[in-house]
Design a protein that fits this description.
Blueprint lengths: L1 E5 L3 H12 L3 E5 L3 H8 L10 H10 L3 E4 L2 H5 L4 E4 L15 H13 L4 E5 L7 H12 L8 E5 L9 H6 L4 E4 L3 H10 L1 H5 L4 E4 L1 H32 L3 H9 L20 H14 L5 H24 L8 E5 L15 H10 L3 E5 L4 H7 L4 E2 L3 H5 L4 E4 L11 H7 L4 E4 L6 H7 L3 E3 L9
Parallel strand pairs: 1-2, 1-4, 2-3, 4-5, 5-6, 7-8, 9-10, 9-12, 10-11, 12-13, 13-14
Helix pairs in contact: 1-3, 5-6, 10-12, 10-13, 12-13, 13-14, 17-18
């Protein structure tokens, strides 16, 4: 099939590349000329394991193309996907649909025959019907059955997006007509053939599924983080607690890892948007609103714990921070806990050294006043404290003895519970804090 993907951000680029790997002819469109030129050269503007190789192979096979000419890309396409950003709107927390609606209007002007318009962007309930109205209003000459609207939300985890697309837990397709459903079945035919769950539903349900899923996962993370805080007061070990909870099949063990709070491109934005949708419909999402509030409190509490590790003041102290992206295997810094913790350290007089395998490209502008170091041992040498913020594999098997011996003060804030208090003590750390566990054993 001939597919056009409007937007080459994270969702659009991953989706477009993967659809081309399914055997479809895909043209990805972006208004950023520099980005298009880079993609045409095979340069990927974001870090996602496996994406660069997949892009290169499908470009070489002439199934994948990049352009800034939307009209040409849309003309004759059987399906056009909208995959532009929906950032949080300033002031009210609602999803900003400016780019979605602009794309819909531009697509409408370029339509030459029956086309399925598929929304991949995360949008509030009712948005796809608004897109239908925009297209019909822009092109009143189109027959009533000249196009169809489909909601096809994405469920891609950064760092594992290729696998998520190729082997999904489920594909959700919101449609209004059998004709649109048949087109979507043809697009996802490789997944149908391998019996991956593909759920066909109405537009509103598809839109809501995305928000409900992300809000639930954010709630799960926030719940275990609150339990972790209580464990610290009671002497319980949150790792044991989360394991005991996760063994219950009704709960499961995923997203039950205590840490410094959730971040990234989805959970913060989507929980705020869901809360706003509830307010607009007179049905406040009280649980989601609390999750948002508690998550911000958790980030601030982690900052306070680092200050406590340094005796209450970080002024004049050298602190090594390992990991600043919101999770490993991505370069995404959006709403990362580091954006709360690191500026607080710098603002209170600390000299901060940062190590992150992929965080420099975005982090250099977001974290002014820090020194970027490539090697964790170099960063820790002579430091007064070591802070583990992101659980990159490179940080999971450090020589803690070597680090402790070369620090000015062997103190560690392990905010991802990578190591154990016993390991820290045996390595020579005199101070160690983690999340939801007691400190150094006697």
């Amino acid at each position: 099939m001939r597919i056009t993907m409007v937007g080459t951000g994270y969702v659009g680029l991953v989706s477009g590349v993967c659809f081309s790997d399914f055997g479809h002819e895909v043209t990805c469109v972006d208004s950023n000329a520099a980005r298009v030129e880079a993609l045409q050269r095979g340069e990927v503007p974001l870090y996602e394991p496996g994406l660069e190789d997949l892009l290169a192979s499908n470009t070489a096979a002439e199934r994948l193309h990049f352009t800034g000419d939307l009209a040409t890309a849309v003309a004759g396409a059987e399906a056009v996907f909208i995959a532009v950003g929906t950032p949080t709107r300033r002031g009210d927390g609602h999803a900003d649909l400016t780019y979605v609606f602009a794309a819909a209007e531009e697509i409408a002007r370029a339509l030459t025959g029956y086309t399925v318009i598929v929304t991949k962007s995360t949008v509030p309930v009712g948005t796809n019907r608004q897109i239908r109205d925009i297209i019909a209003g822009t092109r009143p000459d189109l027959a009533p059955d000249g196009f169809d609207i489909v909601s096809n939300p994405e469920f891609l985890r950064e760092g594992a997006a290729i696998d998520d697309f190729m082997r999904p837990d489920r594909v959700v397709v919101g449609v209004e007509t059998d004709r649109a459903a048949e087109v979507m079945q043809a697009i996802y035919r490789p997944l149908y053939l391998r019996d991956f769950p593909i759920m066909t539903t109405d537009l509103e349900s598809a839109e809501m599924i995305k928000y409900a899923a992300n809000a639930f996962l954010a709630t799960k993370i926030t719940f275990i983080n609150e339990i972790a805080a209580l464990c610290e007061r009671t002497g319980a070990d949150v790792k044991q607690v989360s394991r005991g909870m996760g063994l219950d099949n009704r709960i499961g063990n995923k997203f039950l890892h205590a840490g410094p709070g959730y971040g990234g491109s989805c959970f913060p934005k989507d929980t705020r948007a869901l809360a706003r949708i509830g307010q607009e419909h007179g049905m406040p999402m009280q649980l989601t609103e609390t999750v948002i509030k508690v998550n911000e409190e958790i980030k601030r509490r982690m900052t306070d714990r680092v200050f406590d590790l340094c005796g209450g003041s970080v002024n004049g102290r050298t602190i090594a921070v390992l990991g600043v992206t919101f999770k490993p295997n991505t370069d995404d810094m959006r709403e990362a806990p580091s954006l709360t913790i690191v500026p607080a350290l710098v603002g209170n007089g600390a000299r901060v050294r940062v190590v992150d395998p992929q965080g420099y490209r975005e982090g250099r502008d977001l974290l002014p006043g820090v020194d970027w170091i490539k090697d964790p041992y170099e960063a820790a040498a002579g430091a007064d404290a070591l802070v583990l913020l992101t659980e990159w594999n490179e940080f999971r098997a450090l020589d803690l003895t070597r680090i402790a011996e070369n620090m000015q003060t062997p103190a560690m804030a392990d905010l991802r519970n990578i190591y154990s208090p016993a390991q820290a003590r045996e390595a020579g750390f005199t101070s160690y804090i983690s999340v939801g566990r007691e400190g150094l054993p006697d």
